[in-house]
Amino acid sequence: MALQETKLTINGASFEAQVPTTPDDELDYSKRAQWLRAAVLGANDGLVSTASLIMGVGAVRDGGARAMLVAGFAGLVAGACSMAIGEFVSVYSQLDTEIAQLNRAEGRKDATVGQAAVGDMRQLPSPVQAAVASALAFSVGGAVPLLAAGFITSYKVRMMVVAAAVTVALLGFGIAGAVLGRAPVGRSCVRVVVGGWLAMAITFGLMKLFASTGL
Predict the structure, then answer these.
(1) Among 54, 91, 141, 147, which is 20 to 30 Å from 73 by CA?
(2) What stretches pass through the bilayer (predicted)?
(3) Dihedral angle at the C-alpha atoms of 81, 82, 87, 93, nearest 10 degrees?
């Protein structure tokens, strides 16, 4: 790996350091893969949680299309906000850690630690950008079951269409996650689809049991 001389300034103190350079195509691919993988996972969370919520409401109120859509939309908004806030806090914590490391490096005049910290800072995403990306990814996934259920009046047909749309989307997310993670596609798809179906089945079954008790 090639090194280049770089002048670093931390809290007014300047020193020379050798910072490893990375080819632009490799660096861009690494960053792009991380962001795409995070987006796929966020969209998958939005898909499964919103679809499970719709299935649960459908188990309690047969034919209640409006209740399903309202509950699903509320779950989508709440989940997107939760994802955004969680990502914002998480990335800001990382940012605080990096700043503290830079301050310690400046105090010791340690160029090696300083160059490592600066390298990490350059790769650290913006808290606001990470929050917005997480919210958007979750919303994209959650929109799939909402759109599938929004234009069908028949209860049985609506539930089947939601299940079919979610299954197709889960397959797509499984393939995308496998490609980005360089994992076996078949195993990834099975894991994602079975996990999504299990979440929907548990939610539907528990709510059906709740409705049958008359509580």
Answers:
(1) 91
(2) 35-60, 67-85, 130-152, 159-180, 192-211
(3) 120
Residue 187 is assigned to a structural domain of this protein: yes
In-domain check, residue 199: yes
Summarised one tens digit per residue, pLDDT across range 86-104 is 888 888 887 788 777 777 7
* CB neighbour list of residue 164: distance below 8 Å, 6 or more residues apart: 148
Dump pLDDT digits (tens) for 180-193.
778 788 888 999 99
Query: Cα dihedral angle (147, 149, 150, 151), rounded to 10 degrees?
Result: 110
Tens digits of per-residue pLDDT, 60-81? 866 567 888 888 999 999 999 9
Q: Is residue 51 in a domain?
A: yes
User: Residue 134 falls within a domain, yes or no?
Assistant: yes
Number of domains in the chain: 1
Spans of the chain below 50 pLDDT = 1-3, 8, 10-11, 15, 17-19, 22-30, 111, 114
- Alpha-carbon distance of 114 to 69, in angstroms, equals 52
Q: CA nearest 196: which of 24, 41, 82?
A: 41
